[in-house]
Amino acid sequence: MMPSLSNSDELIFFVNGRKVIEKNADPEVNLLFYLRKVLRLTGTKYGCGGGGCGACTVMVSRYDPKTKKIHHFPVTACLVPICLLYGAAVTTVEGVGSIRTRIHPVQERLAKCHGTQCGFCSPGMVMSIYTLLRNHPEPTPAQITEALGGNLCRCTGYRPIVESGKTFCVESTVCQMKGSGKCCMDQDEKFFVDRQEKMCTKLYNEDEFQPLDPSQEPIFPSELIRMAEDPNKRRLMFQGERTTWITPVTLNDLVELKTSFPKAPIVMGNTEVGPRIKFRDEFHPVFISPLGLPELYFVDSTDDGVTIGAGYSLAQLNDALHFIVSEQPKEKTKTYRALLKHLRTLAGAQIRNMATLGGHVVSRPNYSDLNPILAAGNATINVISKEGERQIPLDGHFLERSPEARLKSEEIVLSVYIPHSTQWHFVLGLRMAQRQENAFAVVNAGMSVKFEDGTDTIKDLQMFYGSVGPTVVSARQTCQQLIGRQWDDQMLSDACRLVLGEIYIPPAAEGGMVEYRRTLIISLLFKFYLKVRRRLNKMDPQKFPDIPEKFMSALEDFPIETPRGIQMFQCVDPYQPPQDPVGHPIMHQSAIKHTTGEAVFVDDMPPVAQELFLAVVTSTRAHAKIMAIDASEALAVPGVVDVITAEDVPGDNNHHGEVFYAQDEVICVGQIVCTVAADTYAHAREAAKKVKITYEDLEPRIITIEQALKHNSFLTVEKKIEQGNVEQAFKYVDQIIEGEVHMEGQEHFYMETQTILAIPKEEDKEIVLHLGTQFPTHVQEFVAAALNIPRSRIGCHMKRTGGAFGGKVTKPALLGAVSAVAAIKTGRPIRFILERGDDMLITAGRHPLLGKYKVGFMNNGVIKAADVEYYINGGCTPDESELVIEFVVLKSENAYNIPNFRCRGRACRTNLPSNTAFRGFGFPQVAVVVETYITAVASQCNLPPEQVKEINMYKRISKTAYKQTFNPEPLRRCWKECLEKSSFSARKLAAEEFNKKNYWKKRGLAVIPMKFTIGMPTAYYNQGAALVHIYLDGSVLVIHGGCELGQGLHTKMIQVASRELNIPESYIHLSETSTITVPNAIFTAGSLGTDIYGRAVQNACQILMARLQPVIRKNPKGTWEEWIAKAFTESISLSTTGYFKGYQTNMDWEKEEGDAYPYYVYGAACSEVEVDCLTGAHKLLRTDIFMDAAFSINPALDIGQVEGAFIQGMGLYTIEELKYSPEGVLYSRSPDDYKIPTVTEIPEEFHVTLVRSRNPIAIYSSKGLGEAGMFMGSSVLFAIYDAVAAARRERGLTKTFTLHSPATPELIRMTCVDQFTDMIPRDDASTFTPWSIRVS
């Protein structure tokens, strides 16, 4: 029975203080879509569509008639169905503040503290901090960190974002060193003085900030209060295109509805149902939403426990439990404290404010962090139906979904009862995840033990594990067998044996990591055992022996600290004219627009008349013949205009080896086979799912580098450089070691997915594309090839993009061609926005690399010879692979001078999506191999790694292996300063002390030197052009060929023009990059943007100033405006192009020599980590980076680049893990499965210093710093190596070992071999196909 259409109610809610009445509310429409496409509020951004990135965060406010209070909370708009918003007030970034009215202090401070680069995540950041301030106008630093836990940023590295939030905290934000009350900056006056230049640490001026005045915030609409207090509320019904949404207002009504529609889901937060509908194609004709039903919202405390309403959000549950813990004696609150520990890291603040206790309990996810604890704490669930109320024990049977313990389909959860714990009853929660917060657990557990009073004899024992099977699993047989035993080591080893026997994870289990998960099952049990022993000892030290002192640190999880740090850079020369902005930490020119949401990205552009949306259909096979494409069902979907295939491409469908639409065969999973154009994206996506493609698999299917080598499958010829006589040198060394290093790839995870708006023009076959790209010329070339028209008819416009990192160099050209073909075929504008999952699948990322080395050295650590081979996994088409392998070979020595050196490299062709450019371009992969063999040499010689690095480092003016001369003096200086200022040797000793005292936690330090290359070995790739117009009012328009990706290129260009024309920055405007104004521009990549476009802008300005000179000489006291007016009357041209021919680099691969790069950027980084050997978790305690910036044009932007690249690099080397099936299917397609660093991963102490040197070849003696910081992240990898090596030595394993990258928790744990890793069952690899494989 379906309710009839006529009785659809009006949906009433407020957005930014304005009333919205939606007469046709569709339950399938979410708030993000409604804000962006219906209300045209485009400040709220689409980042992932699954609540995992925080880009679409908004504030929802509701009035509670019971408490008469207004409740503000953050939500991710992508998961909120609009029907949930009846009676709510929504505040978006536009409602917080705007350039047109006034900006809010949150927006101002995020911008001025340089907490925004590309600006795509900024509105979400603003909303998270703003909502916190609405609830806590004077927050603590911990609250700031917690509020930002659900927001991802890929540009900044988070520190400046946290810092902008900390400016609202009451306590001083300057770190008072060690309680002395002295700032740590003053500790050593002399270390500034002996340096020629004075160093500065202030990147912004706090005195400029407007104060936060909570009384100025918008008031809650009184109409909503009246609606909430209305005694005669009635049931609401919203009827959509395919679904019905019903909101009951009484409990009886709810029970009635659930009886009539037993299959209808009950939706409160939509965090469980929403993603299932969106990503798993579930469909529900009816939704029931009892949001706000008073019977579901309460806390009821009694003497023996507490009952909490099922409607409470996890954030409200958190507050309620905190209150109970503060009121009750400690022994009663063990279960509550265990829940609180997991609530802190469960998802992010937005999801915790949406998800409800009832929904979490009843959906029983196998990864649940709370259910195992509730079960261990003997909780029960109160349910209601037509039949009346009943209690269901929240136990193993319920969690394992056994038939006798399940909810009937017409039953509704009312509340959850959690009993108090007792004196001899211990309840604990344990978990391990890839990332500390906002990540599903790899394994988690809830455990409880009850002892006979006054003894350590087990009376009752319960163990529940999550993420080890399709449901949460209870180890009930193990627990049964241990009753009556003493809580001692013998019991523990029996328990481990029994639980491994009872909980079996099959070798090919979904999710992989099988041996790691088996190990965690018993490692977490061991932690539980230790914690209980420790607590027994505290209760009666006489009776119960304490755990060994060396085991103490195993008890505690790593704390979440608020990061802090110091940024040092050279002060501006006091004699520089005050108007000259060069060298000052100027804010990004769009920063305020970023934080108010007024910066326009491509999908924020208003709809174009008759535009269509494009959805892609991609290959599901890695290598197959296309037998047939059947689009008949797709074409029948309402709103569908056309399906576009290879047949529809007017020009080349294969341009330089890149295929636009698959033709006859597919060569990877994720290759575009066809696209669907329709009137809405929903229709296009629905139709795309109905396209039927028949395949016939082809052999061979090559996925990994090893398979490519076996099949001799390559994209390029071998590239080689060699110096000295390697064979000869190997004969005269003391030792030779050989090894190989696997380095996996990385997803760009730019916050704004690939976005294109293609508009065909009426005449002359012209077409205009608006898109986010690093290389508009390339898009123009590919579109011209696909459409078979001259490039002069194609205009590519690029204003800004939400992060790129190399992922928008070549890929937008291919996608641009795909959308242009659709636009021409349909004759209508095409809006093409890749969903996050499609983007991750289609566009691929960093090249995985396999390095094989053979190194000969003397016992004193001097390396005499190295022979290395590198192979990269290029994927299925050429893309940038040849250039990447050239860079790998050329950069393969890093900072070390090895007299006899041979390096060879080749790019492999595989059936994976084609890998592409990514920040650092091969160097972050190759340099890890170099550091690995240096560290291995140190291990063989029993020397500290830093000593072997020092011995083999370039010391004086030298030639590289490809015969380019350079001076390593800045490298030596960065290295020396890094060791001194980071107190490396003292901290290394302290870490060794710590390691002696702690068996299960280890600390490690590593310091890494870097010699990084800038630019391209091909001279014509280093050219750049600009166009400068001076208008008659004196205002100036600057246009250049570079693209603004968030790195602040436009900001620096304004600084250059301001200095050269000697006018204030406010006179200068920079609008967009386009192929119409500056033709044939090369890519904005290789850290070259400022170098080449700065020179081009400078050249144009100097030409204009030379023209103005006669006018100025006649009237030296005149104003700029007067000079310009006069010049016009004298017919002097006020517009010119500027040009920079480029650095004259070259490389001759025949001779294996050349001046391949214009200059080097040097640096050094030191990191310290602590590793938990039982779980594989690590905590980054401190990082110091010293970067040779020469002269920084804008220290704020440069430090932002260094910090952002470092955090991105740290992610690459530690937690970012791409998983592929053996058939070549990418599993990691969302922030749920691919973990980039969040605010909790960044170093607790983070110090960055820009070191001064000279670089006369570049503009104002600056250096390009966009990529150099990336490799610095490997200092974390090698610090982890150091810690793991300490653990292995203590366990008697002294052999040199290799830590491959990424050093995930799994790798760390399994390399820290101990009795637990020895205990688990192992499988014969030949007997099963693993769930995932590595492709390097």
From TrEMBL:
Q: Which reaction does it catalyse?
A: an aldehyde + O2 + H2O = a carboxylate + H2O2 + H(+)
Q: Does the keyword Iron apply?
A: yes
Q: What is its EC number?
A: 1.2.3.1
Main enzyme class? oxidoreductase
Q: Which residues form a coiled coil?
A: none
- Binding annotation for [2Fe-2S] cluster 1: C48, C53, C56, C78
Identify the residues that bind substrate. F921
> What residues make up the catalytic site?
E1267
Task: Indicate whether tRNA processing appears among the record's keywords.
Answer: no
Residue ranges of the FAD-binding PCMH-type domain? Answer: 238-423
Instruction: Tell me the first and last residues of the signal peptide.
Output: none
Gene3D superfamilies, per database record? 3.10.20.30, 3.30.465.10, [2Fe-2S]-binding domain (1.10.150.120), Aldehyde oxidase/xanthine dehydrogenase, a/b hammerhead (3.90.1170.50), Aldehyde oxidase/xanthine dehydrogenase, molybdopterin binding domain (3.30.365.10), CO dehydrogenase flavoprotein, C-terminal domain (3.30.390.50), Uridine Diphospho-n-acetylenolpyruvylglucosamine Reductase, domain 2 (3.30.43.10)
PANTHER family in alphabetical order? XANTHINE DEHYDROGENASE
Task: Note the subunit structure.
Answer: Homodimer.
Query: What is this protein's name?
Result: aldehyde oxidase
Q: Which organism is it from?
A: Camelus ferus (Wild bactrian camel)
Gene coding for it = LOC102511253
